[in-house]
Amino acid sequence: MHLWATVGIEPKAAWYLVAGTGMGQTLRMASEKRAYTLADRGTFLAQRPGLDVVVVCEGDKLLRNDYTVIRVNPAKHPHVRHDAARRFADFLTSEEARSAIGRFGVERFGQPLFFPDSKPEPTARQPA
Length: 128
Prior knowledge:
Largest sheet: none
Strand content: under 5%
Distance between the termini: 29 Å
Number of helices: 6
Low-confidence stretches: none
Helix content: 25-40%
């Protein structure tokens, strides 16, 4: 809905369908109806053999689908496992994990499903 608002369109016409399903089923519906949809790369690549759709736009910053790891402040939430969360966040931003994330899917689909964009977190920084 944010993308529609950005371009000044309120999609409340007969041409606009709300799938109300998961991404795989939405892609199949778009294929059957010869329609456009927004989809994440991983689901599209996994479903592509059974679809009659093509990518018409990719790479625009508005289409980014970022995943983020956020550690909560242990002073505000003392019941959380702060040390385990810190180790997990450190692992996700490590070179080893960044490399694995960037390679994921290449062997099966010929291209990565995800693009790592994290930087190691400074150890002195405390979560908000």
